[in-house]
Amino acid sequence: MTLGRHSDPSEEEISAAEQALRSQNLSGWLAIMEAVIGALRRAAAALDAGSQVRAEAALAAPAVFTLGPRATLARLAALPPLPRTGEAAGAAAAELDRLDRRR
Questions:
Q1: Which of 4, 76, 77, 101 is at a distance of 20 to 30 A from 85, taking alpha carbons?
Q2: How far is CA 77 from the centre of its chain?
Q3: What's the Cα-to-Cα distance from 27 to each of 11, 17, 20, 32, 50, rounded to whole Å?
Q4: CB 25 within 8 A of CB 33
């Protein structure tokens, strides 16, 4: 789970997110988000290591990746350039770094 910065969230932040989701009857989404993030990180690490087989295995959860591992990887590999997304991510990271320095 990422709460808007490049470091892991604190236990308090995780608890607050869980509580907020639970209060809206959305607690199951936290588990799904964790599954998706973990699977994508494992797939990325496998691809970085040159293992397509391990990347596909990381995305084998049919309830999460409904296209299947191979099609999911193909779709992710075919994304167009997303410059505005990169700009937004950079601006958000810069602002969070600025806020972290104020602490």
A1: 101
A2: 16
A3: 16, 9, 8, 9, 36
A4: no
pTM: 0.60
DSSP assigned state of 48: H
Residues in the chain: 103
Rounded CA-CA distance 10/67 in Å is: 33
Q: Render each residue's pLDDT in the chain as its tens digit; 103 residues.
A: 444 555 666 778 777 877 887 888 876 776 777 788 889 999 999 999 999 999 999 999 767 888 999 999 999 999 999 999 989 989 988 988 888 888 7
Spans of all domains in the chain: 11-102
SS3 label, residue 58: helix
